[in-house]
Amino acid sequence: MTPTVAGVDIGGTKTRILLADARDGTQTGDRTVDSTGWQTRSIPDAAAWLHRQLRTVTGATVPERIAVGAHGCETPEQCALLAAELRALTGIPADVVNDAELLVPAAGFEHGIGVVAGTGSIAVGRHRDTGAYLSAGGWGWVLGDEGSGSALVREAARALLSGADAGAPPDPLQDELFASFGVRDLPALAATMSWDDGVETWGRHAPAVFAAADAGSRSAATVIEEGGQALAGLVTRLAARGARTDAVVFAGGVITGRRRLRDAFTRALADALPGTEAVMLQAPPARGALALALRQGSR
After folding, report:
1. What is the pLDDT of residues 54-75, one digit of tens each?
2. Which candidate, 154, 170, 164, places its Cα nearest to that of 218?
3. Which residues contact 121 (CB under 8 A, 6 or more apart)?
4. What residues contact 67, with CB distance under 8 A and at least 6 apart?
5. What is the pTM of this model?
6. Within 13 Å, how many C-alpha atoms sit on residue 260's CB side?
7. Structure confidence by residue, pLDDT tens digits, 145-198
8. β-sheet bridge partners, residue 135
9. What beta strand segments (E) does 112-213 contain?
10. Spatial separation of the C-alpha atoms in residues 140 and 190, rounded to whole Å
11. Which of 12, 89, 105, 294 has the fewest Cβ atoms nearer than 10 Å?
């Protein structure tokens, strides 16, 4: 029987599981399942959930090694506990990392910093000497997640309200946010964002900020530019703490799908860390999990 490894990317919505030949890395299996039921509050339950998903893909095939990038696994200690539970269930060597750590190996690099900017944002890397896990950002839509869709909407609304306080005339940002949230005035916008829909819905309104910038809104353009700078700032903080910057790999629907934000990020990164290569991820993150699983066997 062909020796096999498994790489798993558990996202907030979907989970992708890849299988590959342990000898040469040739992909032999690929399945995407819904992430319903995934959580990290109970590590034993999380391991049991993951084990069930693996069995739907592997069937009678028992992988030699498993590597997992897990959404919601926020600390090395939490990842280590999940890996231990998974090993106990399967009897197979297993490694677990935060899902953002899959970006660098998925792009074909061994070392670097991964940046995610979607509904939320975070940057992760490893210390150049100790290999310790490092992260910056990812503190949630209310307090942080700089440069994410949620944060762009938050900062756009703040800019709009601040401008109104200063007596500035409305610009296209007002029209776009009113239309997106279905409100008619600023008090209704503030109330809807604060109480009605909840912060977890902010990210879906990010297209309104980009539309306003395209329509000539200086406020929206500034919010996007500062969002890109904030994302670059997450990288520079990790670099200052000792993270390797061989490459910076970025992913997430907001930064990959919106050139304004992407350009703001890459410009700010080039200014802060000249010579650092910024790469937009083209491969599925699950390929990064597969690469980690293959590396386990080469150690």
Report:
1. 888 776 667 889 999 998 888 8
2. 170
3. 115, 137, 138, 144, 145, 146, 147, 148, 151, 231, 234, 252
4. 5, 6, 7, 8, 94, 95, 96, 97, 289, 290, 291, 292, 293, 296
5. 0.87
6. 22
7. 899 999 999 999 999 999 999 998 888 999 999 999 999 999 999 999 888 666
8. 124
9. 113-117, 121-126, 133-137
10. 19
11. 12
- Neighbouring residues of 162: CB distance < 8 A, sequence distance ≥ 6: none
At position 289, the amino acid (one-letter code) is A
φ, ψ of residue 20 in degrees (nearest 5): -145, 155
Joined together, the tokens standing for residue 9 give 């990317």
Query: 272's torsion region: left (phi>0), alpha (psi -120 to 50) or beta?
Result: alpha
Q: Write down the residue that tokens 């040739």 correspond to.
A: 26
Tokens of 272: 């802060």
Helix (H) or strand (E) run with residue 97 in it: strand 94-98
**Could you give the C-alpha distances from 281 to 114, 168, 248, 249, 286, in angstroms and in order?**
10, 40, 10, 6, 12
DSSP class of residue 33 equals E
